[in-house]
Amino acid sequence: QVQLVESGGGLVQAGASLRLSCAASSRTFSIYSMGWFRQAPGKEREFVAAIGGTTYYADSVKGRFTISRDNAESPLYLQMNSLTPEDTAVYYCAASRDYYNSAFLRDSMAYSYWGQGTQVTVSS
User: 103-115 pLDDT, tens per residue?
Assistant: First the structure.
């Protein structure tokens, strides 16, 4: 079983930056790809970014957010720049043991493991 723990969320003003981290405990060799999703109040969970062979981004964050992970043993990061109030949400880290280099990583069904989430709030 893989456990994921996110950190780095907080309250910032519009235009600021934040870096989220996600640490995986044990069995990291079983993880092919990882991703970030977010859920705003009253909305469904949505894809943000994924990394596994290549990187994938939602159109709403492309050019502002960068997902990175050095190797299978490294934490997953999400560098978020030029934040807007529309980015306010709980951000979830997810790990996939089945998909690599696949556009299916944009779908939450590709992921087997999820973190508890970290709150990001952007004030105007």
Answer: 899 999 999 999 9
CA atoms of 12 and 114, how far apart (whole Å): 25
Do residues 124 and 91 lie in contact, with contact meaning Cβ atoms separated by under 8 Å?
A: no
DSSP 75: P
Q: Which residues of the chain are modeled with pLDDT < 70?
A: 26-29
Query: Is there a contact between 56 and 44 (Cβ–Cβ < 8 Å)?
Result: no
Largest Cα–Cα separation, the chain? 41
By the 8 A CB rule, do 114 and 3 touch? no
Give dist(CA 123, CA 120) in Å, integer: 10
Q: Tokens 């069904």 map to which residue?
A: 109
Which amino acid would we find at residue 7?
S
